[in-house]
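Reply to dn_fold:

You asked what the input looked like. This is it:
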Amino acid sequence: METLLLSQREIDRLAILTCLSEGRLRAAEAAAALRISERQLRRLRSRLRADGPAGLCSKHVGRAPNNRLNPDIAAEALAIVQLHYADFGPTFANEKLRELHGIALSTETLRSLMMRAGLWKAKTRKRNIHQPRDRRPYFGELVQIDGSRHDWFEGRAPMCTLLVYVDDATSALVALQFVKSESTSTYFSLTADYLRQFGKPRAFYSDKHSIFRINQPLATVDLQSQFARAMQELDIELICAHSPQAKGRVERANATLQRRLVRELRLRGIDSMDEANEYLAGFITDYNARFAKEPSLAGDAHRPLSQTEDLNRILAHTFDRKLSKNLTCQCDNVTYQILDRSKFVLRGANVQVRIALDGTAIVERRGKPLTFETTTRAKNPRIVTRKDIDQTPKPRIDHPEHARIPAANHPWRRYPHKFTPAQTANRTF
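and this is what came back:
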């Protein structure tokens, strides 16, 4: 006796067609109940009369699907992933299979293959709810900046930091640079390259690192960091986020870079910061082609640099000094002597000493440069006298090893009336 496996939908069809055959339903009512046309209803009635209930079974049962993955291709793809991309994510591994090996699979197909082979495990994350912030509408209106310290070369080179600049409107990478550590000088250098390429953005969005703001509890409101002072001179707003989630675009970009860029450097055999910085230009282009979005409003909010905005002068370490009576000031163990002796009216005047990234210095008074010469002061050496050289540590008389008994002809022994012979022999001086 043949056993038929019918789905619930096919069972419902059989019941309604049986009622139709017994005259308990009209054709229009049966078609409406099955949500099919009357023409399709007639086809089903014909199949039921000819083959019985088996005529209602799907013809695809037991047949291989047309889009079934070729087992040989699946085995080849999985072998390549196990050999070269075992620690890659499914999306990234699928991109490499297409680009380097000519194997075209869907990401979800590769994901299932990797999960069955134990190469990938679905991650469950505990998500905290944060109030979303809308993107800025224009490209260049807000740029999020951050530094990501990570083992970028997986032990092939010392650990270093990647400075990341991300546009808020498009999530595009606009600047990357490997540096030894986060510092004002490294941010000045990368910011100068960014400004020369794109122009001035409306605002930079950073964390509360001491590079961007003064974190001392007793600091005055007017006290600024070197980076904040430079941004004020360039008319660029500097916003310091209160939490990592507030600047989530650059934080998520850091996570993506730690997964993708590390493996790209490994595949290309790059094991130094200089080689990595040369590769970053091509990586940025490929990254933005994959992940960048279109801004909600067309246009570029960057502003061009004016002729008076000298980046070498503005993006420099600036120190406020006061001229002495002989028109000198000191900064970083260097004495700056103003050469124009006719300007003795500047005695006690406030000046600014700007030290650029290349080491050149500028002394300014109210924005106007002053001519000067520099002398470097040698640090005062410690003066050692003969007394210091000949001085020896004094013996400790409170320790038995350092106890000393006077000799028999010592002058103190000439006065026996002061001590008895037993006291003199056992006396310790």
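Residues 134 and 200 are 22 Å apart (CA to CA).
Hope that clears it up.
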